[in-house]
Amino acid sequence: MWKNYLTRLVQSLPFFITGLWMTIAVSAISLAAGTLIGFFLGILRTRPNRLFRYLIGAWVDVIRGTPFLVQIFIVFFILPEFGIHLDAFPAAILALTNLGACFICEIVAAGIRSVPWGQKEAASSSGLTEWQQLRYVVMPQAMRTILPPLVGQYVLLIKDSSVVSVIGVTDVTRVGWLTVQRIPHGLMVFGLVGLLYFIICYPLIRLSNLLEKKMAKGTR
Amino acid sequence: MLETFNFRVIFEYMPFFLKCFTATLWLSGVGLVGALAVGTLACAMRISGSKLLSTAAGVYIESIRSTPLLVQIYFFYFGLPSLGIMVTEEITGVVALSLNSGAYIAEILRAGVQSIPFGQIEASLSSGLSYFQRMRYIVFPQALGVTIPPMLGQAIVLVKDSALLSLIAVTELTRAGQIMNSERFMPAEGFFTSAVFYLVIYFMLKSLAGWSEKRLIFRESR
Amino acid sequence: MIRFKNVHKWFGKIHVLNDIQLEVGAGEVLVVCGPSGSGKSTLIRCINRLEPIQKGELIVDGMEVHDHKTNMRKLRAEIGFVFQQFNLYPHMTALENVTLAPMKVRKISKKEAISAGMEVMEKVGLGDKIDAYPAQLSGGQQQRVAIARGLCMRPRIMLFDEPTSALDPEMINEVLEVMKALAREGMTMVVVTHEMGFAKEVAHRVAIMDVGQVIEIAPPHEFFSNPKSERTRLFLSKILSH
């Protein structure tokens, strides 16, 4: 019986690959957008302006304190009540970008705070503007602390992207969910899905570990 | 939209929400206990001298970390029946949660144990303590201090992870929101209320983490 | 050049600068010493507003530092600051450290900056280390690069906050020699330090601070041989007796 399932599964492989592309697409777009927004907000987070810090802090707490599934539902079901009707794909991108930006903001802020205060003083003492201090002195050094957890966060986002399957985005998880209705062998079907995620995520995890070791070596 | 926000409906459904809130706490709690058990075992296997045990644990941990929780949940939900194992969705859910968080807890414990200065081990070796005595009196108490904050972080993650169980028809907090959406077409009232309950748990755990970190810092500085 | 008038500063409840009246003229070398916690570091850090003052007036090179509206960037370009912890940028070579500010603040071209940078590195005796990273340099060399970094901006005032306190004893002299040469060339300098030999050689005046106040200020020959205050005497006996 299961040999039958296996052949059918192999026949469905193209379907899975399409799903995998969707997963990669959703993740990549959200990663890119989330990184840009996250860096911007992370820098704002470390400025002396109290209003920004509290606002961003509150937003971070809400995003970190609620399940991503609930956030996706809110984007997909509640935004229409405000007149914003989004298809599944844009809604997924919106929610995932929001999630990514939030966590990346925290990673960037922590990285900036890790740069010794004396560096900023030295830079400001020579008359550099805030922006110049950030660009030439603080950020290059902060990147050392930011890079490993940033890559780790990318892995988390790819995994979280599986949740968008519930609003109908045909990513590789949804393909698995649809397939298992026809090929009722959960172990095989989701074993395959898991394998596909593994192929993408495992190298990134190794990269993150490698970066962490390299960065730790560089510091005096 | 706020004018049309129907607080009366929320009030009406509040007993249901509270029941689901309790369910979420239950599921997360049992999941955490299970995760601690699995995690401790996996960690012990990982740091044991045996290459076989270490690799087995390693495979487990890396597979969990490189695949999404939802896929793991579906794996068990759809997979166990094909092995002939029929259990309730709750049990399936808790098993998936325990195995998932267990891997992360194994890593947290490993980091904690490895953070103990080697000099401590040497000192205890020199006084002739056995392996178990070393673990019990020297290693674990110190590892505990380092691991409590990340453990609480993992607890927060676990509570959020439990939301995925709503997708396999387990009655918990997120499902309450879904039901309000499908029965009453009021997704805002439903999901915002769920979100508030989750935030309550989040802030409680967060302050617990902050408090424990303060207390533990005292122990560090001798 | 630098004028403190009725200056007060608090860190929370601690009155760290208590009614400071001080004037430093152009070309003058002032050494400030005193026990730790006396406020001497805070004093010098107020001059380029790394620390703001809460009461009084502080006028540097004609600009009112105490006024919030003053554009400190312009003023800071005229003041070189050397830190106890060097604070060199670890991700840049020595030459890049030195030329960053001239290029970005004074907006001079890269070619000009490099030649000015090499000139100033020669001056501190490190012409052969322009491409070295701070991690490859000794403490004394790093501090000399820090001085070069300040000098390359062609400042009117150089401030030194305990420049040799973080150095191993055998490296203190190389840094002091550079500072002495600067003093002899007529640079306006305020130096917080315990190196009394330096003070005796090149300082025009020596000031001692304690609990936020300037206890005594006098030319070196008077300060060391005929101190007027009891606290000065006590302090001198402690630091000169090793």
Provide structural commentary.
By secondary structure, chain A is mostly helical. Chain A has 9 helices and no strands. In chain A, helix 3 crosses helix 5 and helix 8 runs antiparallel to helix 9. The radius of gyration of chain A is 21 Å and the shape is elongated. In chain A, 45% of the residues are buried. The mean pLDDT of chain A is 91. With 222 residues, chain B is mainly alpha-helical. Chain B has a single domain, classed as MetI-like fold. Chain B is flat. The relative contact order of chain B is 0.14. Chain C has 242 residues and is of the alpha/beta class. Chain C is built from 9 helices and 10 strands. In chain C, the strands form 2 sheets. Chain C has a 6-stranded mixed β-sheet with strand order 6-7-8-3-9-10, with helices on both faces. The longest helix of chain C has 16 residues. Chains in contact: A-B, A-C. At the A-B interface, helix 3, helix 4, helix 7, helix 8 and helix 9 of A face helix 2, helix 3, helix 6, helix 7 and helix 8 of B.
Q: Summarize the main sheet of chain B.
A: none
Question: What fraction of the residues of chain A are assigned to beta strands by DSSP?
Answer: under 5%
What quaternary form is this? heterotrimer
Question: What would CATH call the architecture of chain B?
Answer: Orthogonal Bundle
The gross shape of chain A turns out to be elongated
| CATH level-four homologous superfamily name of chain A | MetI-like
Q: What overall geometry of chain B do the principal axes of the alpha carbons give?
A: flat
**Helix fraction of chain B?**
over 70%
Number of helices of chain B: 8
Order of helices and strands of chain A: HHHHHHHHH
